[in-house]
Amino acid sequence: MSTSLPRILFADQLGPHFVEDQSVIIPEVLGPFRRRRYHRQKAHLILSALRHRAAELGSRAEIRRGETYHEVLGGLDASVVNPTSWGLRALVQDLRESSSLEVLPSRGFVASEEEFGQWASAQTKRLLMENFYRHQRRQTGILMVSGASGELEPEGGQFNFDHDNREPPPRGQDTLGVEAPWYPVEDEIDREVREYLDGLEASGEVRFLGADGPRLFPATRAEAVQALEHFVSTRLSTFGPHEDAAMQGDWAMSHSLLSPALNLGLLDPREVVDRVEASYQRGEVELASAEGFIRQVMGWRDWVWHLYWHLGPDFVDSNYLGHQEPLPTWWSELDSSDIRSRCVAQVLDEVHTRGWTHHINRLMVLGSFAVQRGFNPRALNDWFVDAFVDGTPWVMPANVIGMSQYADGGVVATKPYTSGGAYLNTMTNYCGSCAFKPTVRVGEKACPMSAGYWNFLHQNQDALRGNHRLSKPLGGLARLSDLEQVLEQESVRREY
Asked: Is the pLDDT of residue 3 over 80?
């Protein structure tokens, strides 16, 4: 590859593994902020990261500002690492028509696109994340040991310790009681970004979602390394057991909060995985916690990116269940002031305050509520991209269209990930302070999740009848003594 050509760095290519020793062009464009309604803290993080990277590179870097990428990059002879989204790859192809643009293979994931393609083409049945994850482990040797036959075997005798990582929140505690996450200290660049965004809002040029607030996530490589080290040394050991739980008084629990840094390209996922494995090998953390986290990074994160390309640009418009309800204004505006459901209000408040909430809240509160009420999956996907600091065009389709909304009919997930209030009552501490009761389906105290779950199954039973994982709950519909009341109540319910 040539290092004489300047390298274009997009906002998710800001780590050292995206550039060699050449000069750098960093585009900062306003158009996306006009077209999409980003969370204010997402906009701040992106701009802070771009400007910090330019400051680090000094005279090697040039920030080009304008309305569109075409405006600031048109006619430029340069090299670029192949972008992560359909939109930016189309842009790169357009730019190649008017300039000498060298396009390098994509980076920032454990498996390359070529490696995933080879694995996928060898599969004789449907593609499964667990099979891909095991393939990744064998290819990399991560958490693998030599067995008696001389072949590599998984550490601890099994690939997946998920069954050890499903403990409910500890009783009698408001928080998990672990050390607080690492937080950055804002600097002059952050102050300049905040003033710039204040000006855009004041002029009416741009509208943001959510609240402004102190920057919570890394915007530089040095900060990202500090955040990784702090997580591994102080929080990884308690990550596994409660990773599928949620607590009203503890928004971060033992989660790493590293997804924004990974998605900005400040950390390479392989270095994250290696650091976690080293901590396990030194006896600092249990295998279940190390494996569970490695599976999130090397398994699921890689998986959803490769699926994004494998399934194609039309996947985001999948709508197997035919759901067309627009997002309610209170939802899209992150306004929970009139919401009585503790779980929904809690999680929307977290997104409003920080532009982030952990994966169980995304899937089993927001996603579950949305699929029960038939929200349009494409609109929901776009909202997730815009409202979350780690939301990217590639990360949400498999998570939202596939796993959360089952809008693909089972390509990504084997069943819709929705439940009644009983699950939330077990795995969270939200229900104790809620106006509704998880065991009640009809009446004043009827839990919107419990009633909504049975209403969802009834409304979609024809589409779901062939799913063997739902045979038991679908069979339960006929035995539900108050089904007619539930259906009538949910058909007119407007208060949650």
From this structure: no
